[in-house]
Amino acid sequence: MSAVLQNLVNQPYKHGFVTEIESDVAPKGLNEDIIRLISTKKNEPEWLLDFRLKAYEQWLKMEEPKWPNVRYPAIDFQAISYYAAPKPKQKLNSMDEVDPELLRTFEKLGVPMHERAALAGVAVDVIFDSVSVATTYKQKLAEVGIIFCSISEAVHAHPALVKQYLGTVVPVGDNYYAALNSAVFTDGTFCFIPKGVQCPMDLSTYFRINTEESGQFERTLIIAEEGASVSYLEGCTAPKFDTNQLHAAVVELVALDNADIKYSTVQNWYAGDENGLGGIYNFVTKRGLAKGTNSRISWTQVETGSAITWKYPSCVLQGENSVGEFYSVAVTNNYQQADTGTKMVHIGKNTRSTIVSKGISAGHSNNSYRGLVRIAPTAAGARNYSQCDSMLIGDKCGAHTFPYIQVRNNSAKVEHEASTSKIGEDQLFYFAQRGIGNEEAVSMIINGFCKDVFQQLPMEFAVEATKLLGFKLEGSVG
Amino acid sequence: MIYHDSKVLLEVRGLRATVNGIEILKGIDLTVRSGEVHAIMGTNGSGKSTLAKVLAGHDAYEVTGGSVLFQGSNLLDLAPEERARAGVFLAFQYPIEIPGVANSHFLRLAYNTLQAQRGEEELDPLEFEDFVREKMKLLEMNPDFLDRGVNEGFSGGEKKRNEILQMALLEPRLAILDETDSGLDIDALRIVTKGVNQLASQDNAIVLVTHYQRMLNYIEPDFVHVMRAGRIIKTGGKELALDLEMRGYDWVGVEHRAAVEA
User: What SS3 state is found at B127?
Assistant: First the structure.
């Protein structure tokens, strides 16, 4: 690879600072006592402790999945601290009482809070290490009946709703990391859109891992009742450490009849340095249940960070005519590894799904698309269209595609297209000969490549994603 | 056309260049003045296309000797994009495909980059659309081309027209057309050369790199240079091209060797 391309793809991580803040950290290790400690700290009801213990019991019997196309040393689950919270002086009642150091951190990260939230028109929930520190716009949303708060808060304020839905889309024993999360999750976001309500603004959660040896296990639950709709955005960063931090989140979405949930992620966890040291292990289970007739669940993700990404935002299309969508850009550089994709499980009649996946690999990285399209015998008239494109920058990286297609109803129609391309010296020279410098050329090529996905992002996020990719792959820092 | 008082645009002296350590250009001398049309001819492997790419600054080639002045300053000091902004244009022999990037977006960025360089007004997408559609008429191009990916799925002829469209937009001082005639049918050749002729003026110069005399029926050169083994071994007027068409290239080489040995 030429020096030009090398420089373009090797840019420093700008969110890598650590905030000096007093934290309440649980002793390392995982056992029943720790789970009881978390539950007690959070003053949880008995049923939730039972939920956790049941998950833990299942987890003990499970094995780490070995099938992803990623390589990493064994994780010592006893060396991780399962609870870390910024120490609050007292219970917070408003944003003004949040530790100013914490606010400065989020300011540095460009998270819109306070008036910035008002300007951006986005309601934000912020998760710092394990604990939700601020939710903006709660009042305004409550007026139309929307509940948007941390999941810990929801457990107390809306226990019936949480109990009704928690673990119904991703059961406690679903997979190794989902079981772990179910046992030790500390916070996350809860979002409930009642019947017939169109959420008037985008809802957003910002996740940050700050503590070196802690894991982050957040749990997100979004419910859209009949005819409701919501657009939800999620952003993530973490400081630079030489060690690896584990992030094992679970996200569950439930859409009832005619409901519409759009979930967008820009993931920029610390990816490790240019030699592959440090970075986040991002082992996440995200699944949406399109339960009602004509319901729709749409996932859009821009994955640029993490040392290892293992993530398959999925849709279970149960309701008749329900729709599932997955739009993904995954960028890997240096020694990053990503094994990401989706599952579209068609159960209801005339269910439809679309998969558009764009993988960009640079440096020594490996980028795999893994996707399952399953058409159940009941899914008469189901349709799926999948498109998986890979782009290589340089000659030391890898792009892999693992599509699984299982069709058990002969009236279904499934299409799959795939391509691989390469940013070459000749393309860059062509741009240069028209007066366009390398940075702008790479940005233009990448944005052209990712266009189909970026179009799906809400405006502010699309701008951020474009910048982030530029930042990841070019010389100029946005 | 030759103008008596015109300025020297390009001055190449003793230019040597290698690719992967193999010397391809072995001392090129060439002077191009404003208003002139030069044709560089020669067999495959004589170094014609290499000369074009070296002048444009392709980094696969290493300049090992000689000098190139463009409008009096050292062209070899400039990065490829700086050469383009200074007014050196290369119409590619094999235009590159850039999937997903709309042709209109690419053309506008290239145009605005140059406008900014010249301290002139940049055009927004709507203004540019009108501007570029006018230029496309010159090349009898369908406006659909604006919405397609840059050269993506274009036929050979469409790609070459797209190159000349860029020349029309960027109005370079020096346009080097690298085998723009290859792969064109008679109609396309007529359209493309008509476009080039309309763009030629007293203020710019055109260097045509070609195998065949065919293109020179449409664009009349002031000078014809014959390249062989990395050197210009003969220079003449447009009649030289006709001679080459009739007699082939061998006699030029024989004559050149005789002259060198004498």
Answer: helix
Q: What is the DSSP string of A291-321?
A: -STT-EEEEEEEE---SEEEE--EEEE-STT
ipTM of the complex: 0.95
Closest by CA position to A345, among listed A367, A375, A319: A375
End-to-end CA distance of chain B: 34
pLDDT confidence of B86, banded at 50, 70, 90? Answer: very high
Residue A155's closest CA among A186, A198, A200? A186
Tell me the fold of B8-96+163-261.
Rossmann fold (3.40.50)
Cα–Cα dist A164/A161, whole Å: 5
pLDDT in tens, A276-303: 777 888 899 999 999 999 999 999 998 8
Distance of residue A413 Cα from the nearest chain B Cα, in angstroms: 27
B208 to each of B16, B103, B180, B225, B248, how far by Cα in Å?
Answer: 20, 25, 8, 10, 18
CA distances from B36 to A370, B14, B211, B240 (A): 59, 21, 20, 16
Domain boundaries, chain A: 3-473
Question: Dihedral angle at the C-alpha atoms of A84, A85, A89, A94, nearest 10 degrees?
Answer: 180
Structural domain boundaries in chain B = 8-96+163-261
Q: Answer for the pair B25, B47: CB distance below 8 angstroms, yes or no.
A: yes
Instruction: Tell me the C-alpha distance between B106 and A459, whole Å.
Output: 22
User: What letter would DSSP give residue A26?
Assistant: P
Q: Which residue of B has its CA nearest to A439?
A: B81
pLDDT for res A140: 78
Paired tokens of A275:
């030699």
Measured between CA atoms, how close is A43 to chain B, in angstroms? 53
Is the Cβ of A433 closer than 8 Å to some Cβ of chain B? yes
A187 pairs with which residues across the strands?
A218
Per CB-CB distance under 8 Å, the chain A contacts of B56 are 429, 433
Q: Check if A1 contacts B (Cβ < 8 Å).
A: no
Q: Is A449 on the interface with B (CB under 8 A)?
A: yes
Q: Give the DSSP per-residue string, A354-412.
A: EEEEEEEE-TT-EEEEEEEEEE-TT-TT-EEEEEEEEEEESSS-EEEEEEEEEE--TT-
How far is the alpha carbon of B84 from chain A, nearest alpha carbon, in Å?
5
Residues 6+ apart with CB under 8 A from B255: B234
Q: Which of B81, B93, B178 to mutate to test the interface with A (most CBs of A within 10 A)?
A: B81
User: Is-contact A162 A221, C-beta < 8 A?
Assistant: yes
